[in-house]
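Predict structure. Chain length: 171.
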Amino acid sequence: MPLYCGIDPGKTGAICIIDEHCFVQLIADMPMRDGLVDGLATLKLLKSVGEVKRVALERPVAFSGPASKSALLSLGASFGIAKGAVDCAAPGSLVLPEPAFWKKSLGLDKDKSNSSATALVQFPGLNLFKTTRCTTPSHDRAEAAWLAYFALHSDEYPIPEKKKKPRKPKK
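Prediction complete.
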């Protein structure tokens, strides 16, 4: 049975693997080591469930705001480590949607609590709680599940090519 994976690569991110009927096969917090994604642990998670047909790894985008440069560098490094793990576990299966694109494609908005509520309905067996003592659902787990759903339907949502802006010549 084909499997589809969604990865939210942030520090509090998650990995979700679903089958073609949207039944959750695996949900886990993003494995971390020394403040970055643990590539080997990610590779083992991906290999633990069988053959993954497609993986949607959320592409980080630059944004303005209060984020520190080190936080942005950490996110970029974690993205690269996760991408390497996916390339090893499931070569040729990777799609890299930006958050705004995959959310719009699936009819979701920026409201993370909304994506959590709808994910519980869409994905049987989805556990949004990081521990048994948690009282707040993890929106990162919900977004990983939605990314897995995007991977399942990625043929319907082709990712547009980025147009490179011409550089201004130096004076």
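Summary: The CA atoms of residues 128 and 137 lie 5 Å apart.
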